UniProtKB/TrEMBL annotation, chain A:
Gene3D superfamilies reported for this sequence: P-loop containing nucleotide triphosphate hydrolases
Organism of this sequence: freshwater metagenome
UniProt protein name: Unannotated protein
Pfam family, one: ABC_tran
PANTHER family: ABC TRANSPORTER I FAMILY MEMBER 17
Automatic annotation (TrEMBL), chain B:
Signal peptide: none
GO biological process, one term: phosphate ion transmembrane transport
Compartment(s) where it occurs, according to its Swiss-Prot or TrEMBL record: Cell membrane
Predominant location category: membrane
Name listed for the protein in its UniProt record: Unannotated protein
Membership in a protein family: Belongs to the binding-protein-dependent transport system permease family. CysTW subfamily.
Membrane topology according to the record: Multi-pass membrane protein
Keyword Ubl conjugation: no
MF terms in GO: phosphate transmembrane transporter activity
The organism of origin for this protein: freshwater metagenome
Keywords linked to the UniProt accession: Cell membrane, Membrane, Phosphate transport, Transmembrane, Transmembrane helix, Transport
Annotated transmembrane regions: 23-41, 47-69, 81-105, 135-165, 177-195, 201-222, 255-276, 322-340
Amino acid sequence: MNNETGTTKEVSRRGGLETVGVHAWFNKHHALADVSLHFPENTVTGLIGPSGCGKSTFLRLLNRMHEFIPKAAMAGEVLFEGEDIYAPGVNPIEIRRRIGMVFQKANPFPAMNIGENVIAGLKLARVKTDDKDALVEECLTRAGLWNEVKDRLKAPGGSLSGGQQQRLCIARALALKPEVLLLDEPCSALDPGSTLRVEETIVQLSETMTIVMVTHNMQQAARVSDYCAFFLSEGGPGHLVEADLTTNIFSNPSDQRTADYVQGRFG
Amino acid sequence: MTTFEVSTVVPEPRRPWDHSRGTLLRVGVLVALSGIFGWLLNTLTGLSGFLGWYVGLAFAMPVVAFVGSVRHGWNLASDRVASAVITVAFAAVTIPWVSIFVTVYQKGSKAFHSKYLTDDMRITPSSDVIQNGGVAHAIIGTLMMVLIASLIAVPLGILAAVYIVEIKGRFAKLVRFLTQAMSGVPSIVAGLFIYATVVVFFGGFSAWAGSLALVILMLPTVARTSEEILKIVPEDLRTASYALGATQSRTTFRVVLPTIASGLVTAAVLGIARVVGETAPLILTASYFVAKSTSLNEPIASLPIYIFSSLGLGDENATTRAWGGSLVLLGVVFILFAIARTISTRLSRK
């Protein structure tokens, strides 16, 4: 990751997603301070750090989900293809369509079957599609779920196993053809087999889209991500300690705290 | 080397998503423009009065909203038009509601005098001058009967819901069917039933009989509402409790019911709202009385019957008393609901 972003505040016109001096508050509580990061196009960035260091808050700031929390506030800029997504006149609905999100707990819609769940985003956004079946197949294939569910697309989403449900949620996010995918601990409730499959899915997806994922699993961050960003709160607001190529973070971190954390000495 | 120094300068928190001030301004302009348009429509056509102006406004608002936003694209325009239609519909619902309150207040407040809430009608005929008599006996009667009915119907209704949802007993479907059927029972039939059983066999009209008639009407509302609330308790909570070795009754009373305590208050409120204004069943059970009384074995007064009997005389003072009783009844309902709301927020804050 480029170290210039950490200090300069000038607006760049780089592709991908970039934050400039982002802060977050919940009511008066200062949860996140001064995070400047660049997520280059078609890469996977892992956000790591102990619980409560603001990773998830930061992730939710990236597609304007932060504002759903009452009394939340923010500062700084989030640049998506050079444009601030918090600028006046920007439609948050459009932002969330282009920057998809998958949550920690799989949440397929209970009133829809598997196929309907995949195209739920299009239905909810009232986007017309010519060939729904082809889209369902494409998304499920990209999420690595097609072979397991192709014979029972009419079954309810809740009938799948936890890992399958999570991949269904990824497929659902993919149907809107987002340019960025945000994943908030997508594997924390999954078994190793399902985790492996979701990780493979993430690596494949990163060929065509930018992925930012929060993870508590150091091995996962090492396996999947190209870049890593280490957050820490140290009693005050969460902040960025170090961001670099994943190989550097794990083999040759610049900060002692990063070294301690990735080697499991605290957190 | 890519470590970060956190800037010590903390910027001002902002909420770029908060457009409430802009929305307020926009709605203000919208209502003003639509108001003028409605007034124009009013003077140019045969419409007149407040309702005529409202009809004009109802037509104008979606049009103004559309014209004002169409340059920003179809999505926003349809959004704004939908908002305008909803606002107009909201106002349409509010008009009769406010009208009832205003009418009852205007006519009912004329019946008020310094002792209206503390005196009864023991030596005052309904047609007497307003300065005599009061509604104290009716307030006491209504509060007593509603309280007794609630004490019976609320626990019974909640237990019925527990039987259907938690215990899932052999007769659960039957109980659900019966409560459903009971909610359709006309109130006069409930009164007749108590008349034929309690009144005829246990010594005539009484506050007891009135309360029991109200129980019959309250029970299905409380049971059905509690059932729907119980159903949304996540199964995880029950599982977690069972996994700690808890019995079903401990799980139900210590975990499930406290979780939905504020919802159960709502169920009770709906039940009370169902019966507090009932007149027909009380005519056949609690009958009519003119003095303050707290005896459960005697006939007793109640606000609905006070209103009903005063209105039936046709005399001007009696009619004013009926309006006064209506205002007091609205006040009683309002106070009961306020108490329930307070309890409910207390419970859910815990």
